[in-house]
Amino acid sequence: MNDRLLIVGPCAAESAAQMEAMARSLASVLAECQSFAPVLRAGLWKPRSQPSTFQGIGAQGLPWLTAAAAAVGCPAATEVAQPEHLLAAYDAGIRHFWIGARTTSNPFTVDMLAQTPIADKPSVTWYIKNPTSPDINLWCGAVERIRKAGYEHICAIHRGFALGEHTTSIYRNAPVWSQAIEFKRRYPAIPLITDASHIAGKAEHVAEVAEQAIRMGMNGLMIEVHPDPQTALSDAGQQLTPAQLQDLLIRLATIDTAEQTDQSAELTALRQQIDETDDELWALLCKRLDIARQIGDYKRKHSMAVLQSARYDELLQRRMQWAKQHGIEPEAAKQIMDIIHEQSVLKQL
């Protein structure tokens, strides 16, 4: 079995007929895919923002999901947000569960799920999505709660972050790859997969996010696929058709063969250039902070306020505009400038 996971299926189970059609189409697509180990997903309980939207079919859909997974020949997975969800799915034979971003954000709820009595914990695999906000400690805390409860098989899902008006990302949820990188640094033994559908928000962007994830070294993907996305009761715009999934898997397969050059002399030389450039960046940063200290001395002598908001706004707008012109996300430039400015102010104080 391949190391990489592919958790694939509709956003929500909607009917027995839909899941049967899903199973037929996925079976043929996945039969030709050797790059991923598949898991069939479908939401049954949907934590939607608005109560007027489709909330999921609930336990009624459990036999639809398990039958579809059996037809495809892979495990079934579903989201659980309450102990009763977990117990119902477990009793139906499901052993793969994911914790959604909203649930990860609530330590009390994660604790309740972790402490729910399960007879055969070694058979269960948990997938823990990052919280809605980029809080690495909250994400890690959810992992530790599940681990502390005695579960051995844990994966994490990077599904992007809801930054609202603070992001310039074209995606539904900003990837903030730095959070995924930091998670992998803290937990190198825990597989980390990327939910390309929830990051993208639109079907047209799913492939590029999935390719970024694989090139970043993620351990797999979660992708929403529907036999007829236009009729989907939830997240219709971000779900692929089975044919689109097949095209994507073919595209990703070419990356697998290209990644074997990891120890090439060319790559070693490029990494050396990165190291040298980083040395220069840190030297310049130290120089900038020393100048900030000198400015602080000047302001104290002349009874000037340390924080000069107009001056910083001017600097920030200039750098964000520069970043945009040079192909760098303006929001990333803002984050960097915010950190540098904060450290400069502390030096002046």
Summarize the structure.
The protein contains 13 helices and eight strands.
Q: Count the beta strands.
A: 8
The chain-level structural class is alpha/beta
The CATH homologous superfamily of the largest domain is called Aldolase class I
Helicity, as a percent range: 40-55%
Largest sheet: 8 strands, parallel, barrel
Radius of gyration: 23 Å
CATH topology of the largest domain: TIM Barrel
**End-to-end Cα distance:** 58 Å
Strand order in space, largest sheet: 1-2-3-4-5-6-7-8
**What's the number of structural domains?**
2
**What string gives the helices and strands in order?**
EHEHEHEHHEHEHEHHEHHHH
Overview of this protein structure:
The chain is an alpha/beta fold. The chain has 2 domains: 257 residues, TIM Barrel (Alpha-Beta Barrel), CATH 3.20.20; 84 residues, Chorismate Mutase Domain, subunit A (Up-down Bundle). Helices cover 52% and strands 11% of the residues. The chain has 13 helices and 8 strands. The protein has an 8-stranded parallel beta barrel with strand order 1-2-3-4-5-6-7-8, surrounded by 6 helices. Strand 5, helix 6 and strand 6 form a beta-alpha-beta unit. The protein is elongated, with a radius of gyration of 23 Å. About 2% of the residues have low confidence.
